[in-house]
Specification:
With 202 residues, the chain is α/β, with parallel strands linked by helices. It has one domain: UDP N-Acetylglucosamine Acyltransferase, domain 1. The protein contains six helices and 14 strands. Strands 1-4-7-10-13 form a five-stranded parallel β-sheet. The longest helix is centred in the N-terminal third of the chain and has 17 residues.
């Protein structure tokens, strides 16, 4: 019981420390990451004891309550994991997340697909391992049994399909800024719109 309470206090402190919009532990109680993490701890304990159905039910409830934080009860989470915003975060069954990891919204730690995973040996890892203190930016997608090393940064919008060394940086290409499209560019865009548009898209 003491250990559970200590972890709960630790979670509240992490939210206050990493979310500038939260100023007190009382306010942190309303952060969407909190019910997701607390429910996951209970669901994971049930899952590893063979109570898979109730564990999945708890994960489902947490997803509904938190606006889409979906953590499979089989996933292993370290201490002081921080999920910022939380919307549409997905963590797969065999994923492992280290201590002090930060996940922003729309992060996916997923498998590559049933067509490949169905050929793996039973019990083989299908999801990523994320090392201590790693940061995964908004809409970062990490797929398969790859490893994101400790202190790595996976930038917003990145797709990761191979191992990322400890301390490395992975960045998606930034958007191209077009100051003013030329008349030719505008005409090309108009032609494309006329070719693709249907009465139903207006």
């Amino acid at each position: 019981m003491r250990r559970t309470m200590a972890r709960a206090r630790e979670d509240l402190s992490v939210i206050v420390a990493r979310d500038p919009s939260i100023r007190t532990r009382a306010e942190a109680l309303l952060h969407p990451a909190l019910p997701a993490l607390w429910t996951h701890r209970l669901a994971h304990a049930l899952y590893i004891r063979g109570h898979r159905q109730i564990a999945r039910f708890l994960a489902y409830v947490a997803r509904a309550v938190t606006g889409g934080i979906e953590i499979h009860p089989g996933a292993r989470l370290g201490r002081r994991v921080f999920i910022d915003h939380g919307a549409a975060v997905v963590v797969g069954e065999t994923a492992e997340i280290g201590d002090d990891v930060t996940l922003y919204h729309q992060v996916t730690l997923g498998a590559v697909g049933w067509w490949r995973d169905g050929r793996r040996e039973p019990g083989t890892r299908r999801h990523p391992v994320v090392g201590d203190r790693a940061v995964l930016g908004t809409n970062a997608i990490v797929l398969g049994p790859v490893t994101v090393g400790a202190d790595a940064l996976v930038g917003a919008g990145s797709l990761v399909l191979t191992d990322v060394p400890a301390g490395a940086r992975v960045m998606a290409p930034p958007a191209e800024i077009v100051i003013r499209p030329s008349a030719e560019d505008r005409e090309d865009a108009g032609r494309l719109l006329r070719a693709l548009a249907t009465p139903g898209c207006w």
